[in-house]
Amino acid sequence: MSADAVSQPPAEFLGHPKGLYICFFTEMWERFSFYGMKALLLLYLVKYHLFSDDYGYNLIGAYGGLVYAMPVIGGLIADRWLGMRKAVVFGGILLVLGHLGMAIEGDQATLVDGVVTRDTAALQIFYFSLSLIIMGVGFLKPNISTIVGKLYPENDPRRDSGFSIFYAGINIGATVSALICGWLGETYGWGWGFGAAGVGMIAGLANFLYGQKHLMGHAEPRDPAKLRQRVAGPLSREHLIYLAAIAGLFVVWLLIQAHSLILAIIPGFFEPTPVVLAMHLVSVCLFGGILWFMFKHCSKVEREQMFAVLAFIGFCLVFFTLYEQTYGSWVLFSDRAMNHQALGIEWSASQLTFLGAFFILVLAPIFAWLWPRLEQRGLNPSKPAKSAYGLILAGVSFLVLAWSARNPQANGLTNIWWFVLAYFVLEVGEMLLSPIGLSAVTQLSVPRVVGLMMGGWFLGTSYSEILAAELGKLSAIEIPEGAVFNVVEALAKYDELFVFSAQIGIGSGLLVLILTPFVKRLMHGVR
Asked: Is residue 323 a contact partner of residue 355, using CB atoms and an 8 Å limit?
């Protein structure tokens, strides 16, 4: 698109560029598909394909780690060569194919005389579908958010409210998807739930393709001529990017299948899986580059502010190590050991994952109102203090679950309302930590490397997925063939996990509270 198109004022709707609403609905449907699938994933593995709890936790950890690590690469490719619009379209196509592939169930696994027989062809389609989703998220997720920022001129006061509208789309998609996909998957068949997620992604891609004109050229490649340049016979640089991504699919496909393969570096001490090794490689490159930039190109104040950003990324990693158990141990706990009746409705375990996004929708306007009021009265906590409180509340949410496990109802199962309360406490913690941390990354990072630091944020989240899965394995339960599920023993295992997780959250929060004055000094007055 021409420079003239970019310079023209964008068409607006309700006081914001129309492109915002294109991004809103694209991300809403993408998150619908992403969280709809995620709500079903662990249950599908252990109940349909009869994998062990350990295997299920390993796979969701590997999937989560890769799905949050890939945007680091996808964002860099879009920024340097491909442009955000092309990256989002390519990522959307991969996501559609991946989610629709997930709908192919194959034959249900059977257990006879201790031997499990599985549909290996269907499983290979399943693993490749996960690879498509991982690669698709890598191209779409970082770039759709960047487009939103580019729709507004520098220092435009509407920017913050525009991002608030955009993030509402994320949580609307996540709320509705768990209710619909979870219900379809557990009532009519897993393929129906995964298929509904695929239909949602088709809607998101169609919306983006239809509304490209409203992006006003802001998402185009930085150097279109360089992108079209032939670099290998008839193949342009753009063609090679797509071909490299397709080749990368097969690498991710192998990594996903090797998620339980342990590579002993130091036996008994450091035994990472291939997925973790791949993440380590990305981490060394990313954080090595960040440290090099900090000491080579930053002033003392800028360097200390960048160290503060790294601290917030660390806070995020610990918090989401606890939070991501909502798609792991919390799902199996609610499926196996909890009464599901509430408000006259029988809720399935996958449906209950909607509570996280639902409480965010409820709490977001309250906190948006609260912070300015506290600021006016001089009572607004600093960013590191808010992070500390968020970690403490994450720990408290696990104490609520531990209480419920120790105080079951008459039939031996736990009360669903304790589960709802735990979600509420956890989401209050998220509102204190996650948006505050994201704000700190954008405020404290040197402008030239904000995108790189956001990559660090995503990478911290990817490690939290792996660590959450490792924690979940502490509550893994194996039920011998023909045996009756022992609820009392299961509650004891879940109680042990919940107490340990609570100790991590509360202990980390108290430590951050102690370090708050030091982190504030590193921030040099940034609020």
From this structure: no
Cα 88 to its chain centre, rounded Å, is 17
d(CA 475, CA 2) in angstroms, rounded, equals 57
| Better pLDDT: 503 or 165 | 503
- Supply angle C-alpha 149, 150, 151, rounded to 5: 95
Asked whether the beta carbons of 215 and 22 are under 8 A apart, the reply is yes
For the chain, count helices (H), then strands (E): 17, 8
Q: Report the alpha-carbon distance of residue 402 to residue 408 in Å, rounded.
A: 10
- pLDDT tens digits, residue range 96-145? 999 999 999 999 999 888 889 999 999 999 999 999 999 999 999 888 87
Q: How far apart are CA 207 and CA 147, in angstroms?
A: 15
Alpha-carbon torsion (38, 43, 44, 49), positive or negative: positive
Tokens of 408: 């079951």
Output the 3-class SS for 134-168. Answer: HHHHHHHHHHHHHHHHHCCCCCCCCHHHHHHHHHH
Q: How far apart are CA 58 and CA 12, in angstroms?
A: 46
Structure-token pair, residue 304:
């200390």
Q: Are strands 16-17 and 12-13 parallel, antiparallel or unpaired?
A: antiparallel
Q: CA 447 to CA 160: how far, in whole Å?
A: 18
SS3 116: strand
Q: Which residue is it, tokens 């993440």? A: 279
Please provide residue 12's backbone torsions phi and psi, each rounded to the nearest 5 degrees: -120, 160
Positive or negative torsion for Cα 51, 57, 62, 68: positive
Q: Yes or no: say if 102 and 126 are a contact pair by the CB < 8 Å rule.
A: yes
Would you call 483 helix, strand, or coil by DSSP? coil
Q: Can you tell me the distance from the alpha carbon of 110 to that of 379, in angstroms, rounded to the nearest whole number?
A: 60
Question: What Rg do the C-alpha atoms of the chain give, in angstroms?
Answer: 23
Instruction: Tell me the two tokens of residue 456.
Output: 């660090």
Mean pLDDT of 337-353: 94
C-alpha pair distances (Å), 268 with each of 61, 272, 277, 391 = 21, 11, 16, 30
Cβ(495)–Cβ(406) under 8 Å?
yes
Judge contact between 147 and 24, C-beta under 8 A: no
CA 30/CA 84 separation, integer angstroms: 16
pTM over 0.85: yes
Give the CA distances from residue 374 to residues 15, 367, 378, 382, in Å, rounded to whole numbers and listed in that order: 27, 10, 6, 11
* CB-based burial label for 169 (10 Å; 0-12, 13-18, 19+): buried
For 189, phi then psi, to 5°, come to 135, 145
- Is residue 155 scored above 80 in pLDDT? no
* CA–CA distances in Å: residue 475 to residues 52, 141, 382, 481, 493: 12, 32, 36, 19, 5
